[in-house]
Amino acid sequence: MVARMAFRPLFRVLNGARRTRSWAELKLLLRERLFPARPTTAKDENPPPILFEMATAYWVSQAIYVAAKLGIADLVADGPQSCATLAIATRSDPSSLFRLLRALSSVGIFSQVEDDRFALSRLAGPLRSDIPGSLREILITIGEIHYQACGELLHSVRSGSSGFNQVFGTSLFGYLQRDANAAHSFNQGMTNLSSLLAHAVLLAYDFSGISSIVDLGGGQGELLRRILESDPEITGIVFDLPHAIQSTTRVPSNGGQCSFISGNFFESVPEGADAYLLSGVLHDWTDDLAVGILSNCRKAMAKNGRVLIVEMIVPDTNSPSFSKLLDLNMLVMTGGRERTKSEFHALLDAAGFRITRILPTMAPQSIIEAVPQ
Predict the structure, then answer these.
(1) Strands, E, within the chain: which ranges?
(2) Contact of 362 with 30, CB cutoff 8 Å
(3) CATH 3.40.50.150 occupies which residues in the chain?
(4) Strands across the sheet with 111-114, in order?
(5) What pLDDT, on the 0 to 100 scale, is given for residue 25?
(6) What are 317-350's pLDDT values in tens digits?
(7) What pLDDT was estimated at residue 259?
(8) What is the pLDDT of residue 1?
(9) What's 339's DSSP letter?
(10) How many other CB atoms are there within 10 angstroms of residue 295's CB atom?
(11) What is the pLDDT of residue 346?
């Protein structure tokens, strides 16, 4: 699917990137979308059966997690380093660290430039913590709490309930309120992803004519911040649980008006906004709970208001799509789900909305715009 880029949003994004110095993030989005990184390693001459290789893919994902946790990419950012040097810096066993990096280099993540020296590869670049679009924190989250919860996928399939609750004895968001380290990785990972997603959203959707936005479940406010920077006339509110916004200090660099309010969107949401933004929110919840969130938006919004839902859309056809695997992850993590177009239509209809348009973006997510019926 080719993402749309209307001229007015394109001009706003380019002008905003120049003004706020976010060229690096915009270039990264365009490069990864137009020229995605691919492994450049040679083919295994004697590979195992494909099904076996797929079943053991978690070996690679956990190796990536360990490299992220140890901060290897930051240590080789300025040039190749010996394994002995890296072992000292990470307080690791030299022999075991060598085996880790050798394995990752064999699939294109890092490069083994000499017998005992390793360098950064393009695939490993997003593991750095100091670059726009860093994936380090979200990969730590995936390698820790997601990995443990996924071990209870069988429980989720048999019971229809969250595997996370089975492992940790509480919901994902309840756990994040009590574990500060897990919350930091999760919230920072979501913020880093939002910084890239924001450019894709701004390239696809024209926010002109909107004067106020409430970003529900907006966390540290990165997506809304980017929107306000692109149009200083818009005011915004980030609405989320207290633990998600309590450490937030960033504001739009152009002085735009943005405030943070804590609350529970199952109970009520701030009133009177032109648009209610739900990015990666509805897929956390069952249909009944998602309808409750949308119904609260319907009650609170200004006349001629709208909801803007940023989510992946599951294809109705039997075609490959990352959304189908993410759907399993949502089942395990929260009991939520990804949805097809027809399921979004039914969900919004139940909350008193009708879909006016669905816009693809340069990211895997689409923008669903809906207005009251």
Answers:
(1) 81-82, 111-114, 117-119, 212-216, 235-240, 258-262, 275-279, 306-311, 353-360, 366-372
(2) yes
(3) 7-22+206-318+336-372
(4) 81-82, 117-119, 111-114
(5) 63
(6) 999 999 999 999 999 999 999 999 999 999 999 9
(7) 92
(8) 41
(9) B
(10) 14
(11) 98
Residue-level pLDDT at 2: 43
Q: Give me the residue label for tokens 């924190």.
A: 137
- For the chain, what is the largest distance between any 2 Cα atoms, rounded to a whole number of angstroms? 67
Q: Which residues are catalytic?
A: 283
Tokens 């040039």 locate to 79
State whether the Cα torsion 356-313-344-326 is positive or negative: negative
The fourth-level CATH superfamily of domain 7-22+206-318+336-372 is Vaccinia Virus protein VP39 (3.40.50.150)
Closest CA to 17 of 195, 248, 194: 195
Comparing CA positions, the residue from 323, 368, 319, 302 lying closest to residue 341 is 368
Tokens representing residue 107 in the block = 């699939």
Q: Does domain 50-127 have CATH number 3.90.550.10?
A: no
Q: In the chain, which residues fall in CATH 1.10.10.10?
A: 50-127
Q: Which of 138, 159, 168 is nearest to 335 (CA)?
A: 159
- What is the reported pTM? 0.87
What gap in Å lies between CA 239 and CA 73, rounded to an integer?
A: 34
Amino acid in position 203: L
d(CA 323, CA 313): 7
Q: What residues pair up with 275 in beta bridges, in sequence order? A: 213, 306
Cα(197)–Cα(4) distance, rounded to whole angstroms? 14
What SS3 state is found at 168? Answer: helix
Measured CA to CA, the distance from residue 235 to residue 162 in angstroms comes to 37
pLDDT means over runs of 10, the chain (373 residues): 51 56 61 65 81 96 98 97 98 98 96 94 94 93 97 97 97 94 92 88 93 95 91 93 72 68 96 97 98 98 95 95 97 98 98 97 95 96
Cα dihedral 343/347/348/351 (nearest 10): 170
Residue 5 structure tokens: 């880029």
Two tokens, residue 19:
């003004």
**Tokens in use for 189?**
């990972």
